[in-house]
Amino acid sequence: MKSSPRAARSLACLLLLAQAPIPPLLAKEAAARATPATGTMVAPSVGQADPWLYRGSDIPRDPEWHFGELGNGLKYAVRKNGVPPGQVSIRIRVDAGSLYETDAERGYAHLLEHMLFRQSKYLPEGTAIAAFQRLGATFGSDTNAVTSTTQTVFKLDLPNATPTSLDDTFKLMSGMVTAPTLSASNLKSDLPIVLAEMRERGGASKRVQDAMQKVLYAGQPLANREPIGTVESLTSATPASVRAFYSRWYRPDNVAVIVAGDVDPAMLESYVKKWFTDWSAKGKRTPAPSFGDPAAPKGADASNPVGETRVLVEPDLPPSLMYATLRPWRQVTDNIVYNQGLMTDAIAQAIINRRLESKARAGGSFLSASVNQDDVSRSADATFVSVTPLGDDWQAALRDVRAVIADALTRAPTQAEIDREAAELDVAFQVPVEQQRILPGSKLADDLVNALDIRETVAAPADVLRIFRESQALFTPDAVLKHTRQLFTGTVTRGLFTVQEAGKATDEQLQMALAEPVKADASVRAVLAPVSFEKLPAIGAPTKAIADAPTGLLEIEQLTFANGVKALLWPVAEEPGRVMVKTRFGGGYRSVDPKDAAYITLGNYALVGSGLATLGQDDLDRLSTGRKMGFDFEVKDAAFELSAETRPQDLADQLYLFAAKLDLPQWDANPFTRAKAAAKIQYATFATSPQGVLNRDLQFYQRGQDPRFATPTPAEIEATTAEGFKRVWSKQLKEGPVEVQIFGDFDKTAAIAALEKTFGALKTRQPYAGAGTPAKIDVPKPSDKPITLAHHGDPDQAAAVISWPTGGGVMGIRESRQLEILTQLFTNRLMDAVREKLGVSYAPYVYSSWPVDLAAGGSITAMAQLDPKSVPIFFQTADEIAQNLINNPPTADELALVVEPLRQQVTRAASSTSFFMSQLEGATSDPSRIGTVRSVLSDYTITTPQAMQALAARYLSKNNSWRLEVMPEGKESKTVAAK
Question: Using H for helix, E for strand and C for coil, what is the string for 801-820?
Fold first, then answer.
């Protein structure tokens, strides 16, 4: 049973501020329920007494979904949803993935996914991307497909849907699925792309994933059925062999079409019938293959059946141990009793996980550990235990984790523990009820697809919440104990341990450690008394705002307090149950002394967990039990940011938490110590792949090797101290301006009263060091000689980056938006050249950054992952594209392929308050930002070929660029840069 909240129209009226004509929503155009073919009335199939998804189940049917079946066996489900306005989300699910392949067909399901986009009945070869872009859909986000072990799903989110565009979309997608070309030329074009994708997914993480599959699912097809396939099977593919796989599984009685969008369900149903009714199956349906069952080794102890174990040496990955108790997967009847069991399972796991987290926070043998049950690929019902040991004594870490679990298996939890986790679940089920009008149709469609994959139903959120609350009496200590024992009882237990050095452990030692009896550890069982906000110290004397004025943008108001705090408030009834809160303070990266750079990373890990007022990390957890509260922290160019999504009833307390973090910080050393360990462990992982090295170092080089943007080395982390952490962050918490944003569903009067008691009561802020003087912005010097970095991953992996510095600041905001158009033009050309024609990279792309808070520091950056010998080809191709954009304006058609998807992206984004929140960051200090919001749509969409050529000439000169390459270790040049 999946929760499937009902969605309705969001903030469509807000789009009017963009000063551009907004197309009428299709829901209004289609009021007459006319079919696109005949214009006659259509009677929707909404009165079914036995919809196919719910057969045999007593789960209450979600009335928003309308189900139907065609004569050829194809199933469909459609529903109306107005979030975002005008969008229709289409999913075509084929009940076949990599587990449906033979040994000779490994990778065929995924290869077919690519080939269906290549050419089909209504799409000439290589035109799919452009065709969907003309409809306003962005390739990769709006248009995509996913192949898993058990299904293949084709996805399209069509913005600004009209009867014409919907008809065209269903036509194109139906042709892809029902009549692909699958020619030799298609195979020749797509095979290099799939192999490039395989190469980019390689490396240490892939080796661990492969090892885990082979160990945990030994003897089952899942052990060696990754969707990407093998080089041998893929390079041996022929059009005939691919067609054979297609014919076996791509048939109407093996397909479901799921549609959710801003259109009457009857109209959506008419498109399904029009474009899929004539699809006929050839021959009898092939039954799904057997996925096998987990099996215990011969002679295994039935009470402790430890089976296969393996120790894998990966020098650049942190030590990580996983073991799983496996049971056969069986199809269940998705009914209320079954879901009540899942709820009890969830409580049992949550209790153990909270105890493990408490153990880790107290310091000891492991950094983190968790328990999670999952039904894996319809192959196993498994309970996984993951452990990250600290230090060399991995046996102690495993023993300590197993001891906590053993205690949960020995004695029932207290009712207080159960009630705490039940309160958390209640909130999780309650939030979708409160926010059901604002859930995107794309998520509703994806939820139903996932339900089909795991052979379950969906339910309306109100029904999920009702069933949960009516089941509270079932969540007793004895019931949770019973379910805990079931979670750790199975056919076989298997384990994988990834170590950094050979000799740290052996397969036999791991097997013995898993079989060894452990003594139950009850030390983390204690449930402390609830923490109440009423007993926390006040921030200070409540103070009223000295000014309350409209901003001139929509109904957004600005409050100003005497202490310098400023707040933007926007109550929006169209987003029920959701309030977004953001607090910006201080000076961000630019206010941190470069010699303290390592503390920036540690702040991201540990600042929130260090506590506030009288509360430590465990207290904060207990304080938020049964509440929806958050505490995200981020360091930005010119500000630090606390953010959270909360609910109207929790807003006042959420504001207290943020204000108390600034005014009443605690400095518990345990989170800092744990953060140091995590940062040191993680560092080596960056070197395992080209992308990891870019994640570690690219921003450092883009910012002129400013140490504040570097990832600190283990030595630099080790040199930090708890006293240094307090010194750096206590200074940042008390300095610089404070801006609070509250957008969403809240009562304005109550919010102002809460602000007066919290942020209005703060001490007057001190300016941060360097405030008022322009920040020094370093940018790389132009060079056609790449900076060369090394990775420790596979020898056929490399990455290439070419970057052109641009600018920054609010005054250039329109230009920054125009640069987004230019980068999309560049991306389309780079994708066509490097992926489609050369086949050397799976997903090359170009992006633009423009720091609004700084006068410089922006860039246009093109990058790709590829094989080492293709790095010069990438640089040459990127240079040629840049020079061509300088020499020649794009065609009007090429520009339209970029502008229309951008128009739709902005239009959809602007249907949510979070869009305006991000656009208005810093507006209380720089009111000019308010005016830039009004032109956002026109800035992203109104341009000319000549304007694009002029921008290219201004920024994309070869003499303005610098380059970086990430090569396999041993192949890098002698000029490796520092860091």
Answer: EEEEECCCCHHHHHHHHHHH
Average pLDDT, the chain: 92
Sign (positive/negative) of CA torsion 872, 875, 881, 887? negative
pLDDT digits (tens, 9 = 90+) for 749-763: 999 999 999 999 999
Q: 787-889+944-968 has which CATH code? A: 3.30.830.10
Q: Which CATH class is domain 306-515?
A: alpha beta
CA-wise closest residue to 844 among 859, 858, 826: 826
Q: Identify the band that residue 891 occupies on the pLDDT scale cut at 50, 70 and 90.
A: very high
Assign 13 a pLDDT band (cuts: 50, 70, 90): very low
| Residue 666 CB contacts under 8 Å (≥ 6 apart), including other chains | 610, 611, 612, 613, 614, 615, 616
The stretch 241-267 carries a mean pLDDT of 98
Q: Note the pLDDT tens digit of each residue in 34-86.
A: 333 333 333 444 445 689 999 999 999 999 999 999 999 999 999 999 999 99
Q: Which pLDDT belongs to residue 1?
A: 73
Q: Which CATH class is domain 553-761?
A: alpha beta
Cα distance between residue 85 and residue 261, in whole Å? 8
Res 293 pLDDT > 70 = yes
Q: List the structure tokens of 435.
A: 């926010």
Instruction: Specify the 3-state DSSP secondary structure of 293.
Output: coil
Tokens of 544: 């009223």
CA dist., res. 401 & res. 156, Å (int): 44
Are 306-515 and 553-761 in the same CATH fold? yes
Architecture of the domain whose range is 2-276? 2-Layer Sandwich (3.30)
Return the closest-CA partner of residue 846 out of 970, 703, 708, 961: 961
**H runs (alpha helix) in 78-162:** 108-118, 128-134
Segments making up each domain of the chain, as ranges: 2-276, 306-515, 553-761, 787-889+944-968
Largest CA distance in the chain: 80
- Paired tokens of 592: 């941190």
Question: Six-digit token pair at 266?
Answer: 């009857």
